[in-house]
Design goal:
Number of strands: 13
Structural class: alpha/beta
CATH architecture of the largest domain: 3-Layer(aba) Sandwich
Distance between the termini: 34 Å
Strand order of the largest sheet: 11-10-12-13
Number of helices: 23
Radius of gyration: 30 Å
Shape: globular
Strand content: 5-15%
């Protein structure tokens, strides 16, 4: 345990204030000059200021200023008061609420100190832990913060999401026929209409499925012409239809059930089965492969569990996950309402992952699963540092590590990278070769650690001596000059993509460089680790090379903004 005052002596500024020596006036507290409004002076230049509520500058209007001055003279500088629950209500609060309600044609209005508080308060007041929230990825920060306080489940969908187009291209590339796109959770929003028009312009059929009140509890309404019956009937031309969508809560199951309802109305007795990638039903509950699934879905609160319905019906223990188990009674009731009976006695009956039958070497599978869990832990820890996930998700990953007794020592590249970083006093990267040999790379004046490690690995795989220079400094230095002098980069060191381009140029005339280039495919599925979070450029190059790279949850610099 660290004494709080000792900690303050070492880091008096906290996570932001630690940078005050050089960030004050710029990052931490940007110094603005001039009249408060949408245009202000920052560091001698006139800039747009997007951080004010006075977006249009109306607060600076002479009539507004006059009214403000008259109000100050009449009521004093203490008005308006703070929170009415603490400081008291006035007749003027009530008058403003009445006038606002009349202005917008509503029965009543509620005056809050500021909109941010209003949204957070509304979410907290209206929702219970049993409520599920689906929200836009581009929602305002007040909605995001309000939902962080929400104790129930929440799911995000992409704003005017073009992921559907990527999936269509991917499926078509595999020879699959794409019959159309169904927009679920549909309301009459302009964004929906725009999205639909864009898809239809590309000759993609579009169908709409609407929000059903009290879904999935109100079975009589759901399975009726006012429920599923309102949805568009999806035209199909194949006997087997696959319904897919990115992420949970997207409406895959509801789309299938709606289609069953419409097919039944047309005299077609269609069937339904569900396939989940994980968990694997015939592997033990705490098997590393199934735990790897939990590690991959910590943001969804997915938990593996014994299927109680299957155990009761058949006396057989199978593994399913919580959401399927929770929804099964509702799903069963819908089948009974549509067909008069249900073909399934358990969620496991609906369709399960039978990959457990395909395991020929359990030890290999367990080892791979443990590495995946470790990779997920590091990814989550880095996401938390970037502010992209809550600390509770990292804590869940740590619990999974503890269940299997996993530590950083179980990932050899971690220790190698950290040791190299300590030796050099700069970021380092380590990569494990297919034969188990670990290659490291350090930061230099010419190359970043990831670039150096990549070149060292290619040398090893190609049998090229360590002292051989694959890329001449005469080639590297002009690239650095271009980056710094013309492209505005502050870091002259070459990223991995730049190194590979330079190496490919050298390969045209240098046989040794060509040998090195021929080794790139051998890096696939190698494990790697960096002592710091790499740039998106370097991270993407490793991903394209199919290298399983992880990072320590530390930034290379103390800057607040990282690319």
């Amino acid at each position: 345990m660290v004494d709080i005052f000792s900690r303050l002596e070492k880091n008096a500024g906290g996570p932001i204030g630690q940078y005050m020596s050089y960030a004050h006036g710029y990052y931490a507290f940007p110094k603005l000059e001039g009249e408060i409004g949408p245009h202000m002076v920052f560091r001698g230049k006139k800039m747009l200021n997007w951080s004010l509520n006075n977006y249009l500058g109306l607060a600076n209007h002479p009539e507004v200023r006059k009214a403000d001055a008259e109000g100050a003279a009449k009521f004093g500088m203490a008005a308006p008061m703070g929170a009415r629950m603490m400081s008291g209500q006035t007749v003027y609060h009530e008058q403003l609420e009445r006038e606002l309600a009349e202005f917008v044609g509503k029965e009543d209005a509620f005056l809050l100190n500021f909109g941010y508080q209003g949204m957070i308060s509304i979410i907290d007041c209206l929702l219970t832990p049993r409520d599920v929230v689906v929200y836009d990825a581009e929602a305002h920060a007040c909605i995001i913060d309000g939902l962080r306080l929400h104790k129930g489940k929440r799911f995000v969908f992409g704003h005017n999401d073009m992921e559907a187009l990527r999936l269509i291209d991917a499926f078509r590339a595999c020879g699959l026929y794409v019959g159309g796109v169904c927009i679920t959770h549909c309301r009459e929003q302009d964004t929906v209409s725009q999205f639909q028009k864009r898809l239809e312009a590309l000759n993609v059929p579009v169908y709409r499925h609407y929000i059903i009140p009290d879904y999935p509890a109100n079975i009589p309404l759901i399975v009726s012409d006012d429920g599923f019956g309102r949805n568009d009937y999806i035209e199909t031309t194949r006997s087997l239809i696959v319904v897919t969508a990115p992420g949970p809560g997207s409406g895959k199951m509801a789309t299938c059930l709606s289609q069953l309802y419409h097919e039944h109305k047309r005299g077609v007795r269609a069937g339904y089965a569900k396939f989940e990638t994980f968990p694997i039903w015939n592997l033990p509950l705490r098997h590393p492969v199934n735990l790897a699934y939990e590690a991959a879905t910590v943001d969804l609160d997915d938990v593996n569990m014994i299927d109680p319905f299957h155990l009761e019906a058949y006396g057989v223990t199978t593994v399913n996950y919580n959401r399927d188990v929770e929804i099964f009674p509702v799903l069963n009731a819908m089948f009974q309402r549509i067909y008069g009976s249900s073909p399934y006695k358990s969620p496991t009956d609906m369709g399960v992952n039978m990959a457990g039958y395909c395991i020929s070497d359990d030890d290999v599978c367990c080892a791979a699963a443990k590495q995946e869990i470790l990779r997920r832990y590091y990814a989550t820890a880095c996401a938390q540092l970037r502010g992209l996930c809550a600390p509770v998700e990292t804590q869940r990953q740590e619990l999974l590590l503890n269940q299997l007794g996993l530590t950083a020592d179980d990932r050899p590249v971690v220790g190698a990278a950290l040791k190299r970083a300590e030796e050099t006093g700069a970021p380092a990267v380590a990569i494990e070769m297919p034969d188990g040999t670990i290659i490291t790379g350090k930061t230099s004046s010419l190359l970043g650690a990831s670039s150096a490690c990549l070149l060292n690995a290619l040398k090893y795989l190609g049998g090229i001596p360590k002292d051989v220079t694959l890329i001449s400094p005469d080639i590297i230095e002009p690239i650095q000059h271009l980056k710094v002098e013309h492209l505005g980069n502050h870091n002259p060191r070459l990223h991995t993509d730049e190194v590979l381009v330079a190496l490919s140029i050298c390969a045209a005339s240098d046989p040794t460089a060509e040998i090195a280039m021929q080794q790139l495919a051998k890096l696939a599925h190698c494990e790697a680790h960096s002592s710091v979070i790499l740039s998106h450029v370097d991270e993407n190059v490793f991903k394209k090379l199919e290298v399983n790279i992880t990072f320590e949850p530390h930034f290379q610099t103390k800057k607040l903004f990282h690319r």
